[in-house]
Design brief:
The chain is an alpha/beta fold. It is 47% helix and 16% strand. It contains 13 helices and eleven strands. Strands 3-2-1-4-11-10-5-6-9-7-8 form an eleven-stranded mixed β-sheet, sandwiched between helices. The longest helix is centred in the last third of the chain and has 26 residues. The protein starts with a strand and ends in a 16-residue tail after the last helix.
Amino acid sequence: MSTTLTLALDAMGGDNAPEAVIRGANIARKRYPTLQFVLVGDEKRLIRLVRRKRKLRERVSIRHTSEVVPSDMRPSQALRGGRASSMWHAIDAVKEGEADGVVSAGNTGALMAMAKLQLRTLPGIHRPAMASFFPTLKGESVMLDLGANVECDANNLVQFAVMGTIFSRIVLGLAEPTVGLLNVGTEEMKGHEELKSANTFLRSTNLPINFHGFIEGDDIAAGTVDVIVTDGFTGNIALKTAEGTARLVNQFLREAFKSSISAQLGYLLARRALKKLARRVDPRRHNGAMFVGLNGIAVKSHGGTDALGFANAIGVAHDMAVGGFNARIRDEFEKLNPGEIPGPASVAAGA
């Protein structure tokens, strides 16, 4: 028997809100027949947009607020002054049990800070991370962190490795996923002290992690490892670079096939293969980064995404809820020896 799920949507978050959010919800509504939505934002604007989509109207409720977290607001400011915002109220719907998860395309730092404060972290996890999939030559890999924690110490990186391993086993179905630390080189003497300390710990720990060692940027697309661990600053740059490169290649192909009559004929012969390529590298297909480690489901959509990308972020939250993702993360952590999971600053101290 199918079970109804409800997701809270920060309808005012993101560059193209609320239009992209409403259109994205309508796309997701067609994909997931039992999915319901709590739309949080300016009631007048939302009613006007939803009214045009008759079937979506039957599946939504609206929680009004006129305040929005600006994209440039610092997380500390958002915590102090954003508690009447659409983002805060969308997370609150999860906290109060009105929704099974939240999706927002708004300010990343604010979303992490608010979600951590309201939902708390799962037992054994000190700092959540933002994780998402990367297409590779071998299939897919998982990278974390992608921007939730700009600065990370060695302890954070080790915990990300643990969470990434569990995530890959649960979501990608890998029995023994390999883990790598993203660095400026594979040699052990390279990198800053936090990376070196995390590398030393992961090579000697008894935690059930299949640790590969250091990897470089070109290893991401090669699929050298299944789990890529890095700080949020580096991870976000890698993510945006990959998305920009995909758009660049797409634009170059368009220009090349318009350059001459023979090129246009070549496009006609190759268009099926090119459409397949475009779908595979389309950043919207991989839109929707999960906050791993929270005691609740929170998904961050790219701020500049369109309706299709936001619908895919909704799909990520839906699949996490259906699969009982957080419960499985909790169960996996309970199987580990708590004394083996490093606490704050213990890795750098030589644990």
